[in-house]
Amino acid sequence: MFKTIAAFDRIGEENAFAVLARATELAGQGRDIINLGIGQPDFRTPDHIVEAAIKALRDGHHGYTPATGIKPLREAVSADLHKRLGVDVSPDSVMIMPGGKPTMFMASLMFGQPGVDILYPDPGFPIYRSMIEFTGARPVPVPIREENEFAFSAEETLKLITPQTRLLILNSPANPTGGVTPKAEIDKLVAGLEKWPDVAVMSDEIYDQMVYDGEKHVSLLTYPSIRDRLILLNGWSKTYAMTGWRLGYAIWPGKLYDYARKLAVNLHSCVNAASQYAGIAALTGPQDEARKMVEEFDRRRKVVVEGLNALPNTSCRTPKGAFYAFPNIKQTGWKAKPLASSLLEDAGVAVIGGPDFGVLGEGYLRLSYANSTENIRKALDRMGEFLSSRKAA
Ligand code: PLP
Predict the structure, then answer these.
(1) Could you state, in chain order, the average pLDDT of each consecutive group of 10 residues for the chain (393 residues)?
(2) Cβ-Cβ contacts under 8 Å for 17 (sequence gap 6 or more)
(3) Using CA atoms, how far apart are residues 140 and 118, in angstroms rounded to an integer?
(4) Atom of ligand 1 nearest to the CA of 246
(5) Cα–Cα distance between 276 and 278 in angstroms, integer?
(6) Facing residues of 27 across strands?
(7) Which pLDDT does position 154 carry in this prediction?
(8) Cβ neighbours of residue 21 closer than 8 Å, sequence gap 6 or more
(9) I need a surface site. Which of 51, 157, 224, 328 has the fewest CB within 10 A?
(10) Candidates 101, 239, 352: which one to mutate for ligand 1, based on the most atoms within 8 Å of Cβ?
């Protein structure tokens, strides 16, 4: 029998995909399922972006592109970052990736190995830990606390850094909590990092344009003191409702850019050309549809938070970013995963149990409000009925 390496037994998953599969299966059996599980906008990609992809194919862009992405797209990313954040990023530091995830994968491979530590948020996007474990590095969770409005704490993060630490993963606005870390906290973290010049930082800013209540996204790119060790992860999936296009970008500092380019050549060669042309249209075209999506998420956010706070023994902070609510269900007597599973099987509402995002996710559920207000209200009614009538399993 063949013998594979142990790393493959350590690789994790994203349970949101399993919940989506089960929700789809139940719906296929005729059940009325409301899906608040998966993290993808329920909007169509704006038409002018779709048209740009169709035009690219009609114009004959059928072939390979450079592994790092087509130049006009890298230039468009650079111009967009300048316009939005006032930062200068050379198009030659921008690498077009097949979505946001591959940047995590590559960064973990560049830094992770047995004997080193990688810090990541808990609760946080599950792929961070999965990839760290795959490399054999020690995953060191940085606690993300409700009492801190689900922002990360600079002090707590800095205390966890040791000479073994190679990479620090940050995510704001955050999945699964909707937390947005304030500028003062990021200032403090960056100042503290000056003592640790060998620690690289990967900042996952894929929800950067989804912030509410006048909150401003603070990009780690705006801190010159860490620019030479900052990996930035971003992409089109969330902002432009383009999850299925598999289009993202990374900014790699120094020699990491060439490492990433070589990994791309070995792995996927390039991102498909049509998606890249669509990406140019997204960044350089009208932004009103993207803005309208955020306004709609904002309206739903209020509905979801108010509804969750009215449920028996449930409380929910108002998330400041992304499109997730992370209610505290500790007083219901339920553990989060059995509750999520019973809500799907018995009440027809798909949500994700907090432990799917890390051990500190116990006692919480994640609800994605990427669904219509009508469905959100219906789901909340069902959850209310369920919690009022069912004893904890
Ligand atoms: N980073 C975070 C925090 C996410 O929540 C997601 C998707 O859910 C991603 C990255 C991955 O994005 P993509 O679908 O572009 O790979």
Answers:
(1) 92 89 94 92 96 98 98 98 97 98 97 98 97 97 98 98 98 98 97 98 98 94 98 98 97 98 98 98 97 97 97 96 97 96 96 97 97 96 95 78
(2) 38
(3) 6
(4) 15
(5) 5
(6) none
(7) 98
(8) none
(9) 224
(10) 101
For residues 67-104, one letter each, b for 16 or more C-beta atoms within 10 angstroms of the residue's C-beta and e for the rest, the string is bbbbeebbbbbbebbeeebebebebebbbbbbbbbbbb
**CA 274 – CA 57 distance, rounded (Å):** 6
- Among 145, 129, 217, smallest CA distance to 177 is for 145
Looking from the CA of residue 243, the nearest atom of ligand 1 is: 14
Regarding the beta carbon of 243 and ligand 1, being less than 6 Å apart is answered yes
**Does ligand 1 have an atom closer than 6 angstroms to the CB of 100?**
yes
pTM higher than 0.90: yes
The pLDDT value given to residue 65: 98
pLDDT at 13 (0 to 100): 86
Please enumerate in sequence order all residues whose Cβ is within 8 A of that of 1, keeping only pairs 6 or more positions apart, or say none. Answer: none
Sorted by where each starts, the structural domains of the chain and their CATH numbers stand as 7-44+288-389 (3.90.1150.10), 63-284 (3.40.640.10)
pLDDT (0 to 100) of residue 385: 96
Q: How many CB atoms lie under 10 A from the CB of residue 250?
A: 25
Strand order in the sheet with 324-325: 324-325, 365-368, 352-353
Query: What is the pLDDT at residue 39?
Result: 85
- Could you give the C-alpha distances from 236 to 40, 202, 264, in angstroms and in order? 11, 18, 19
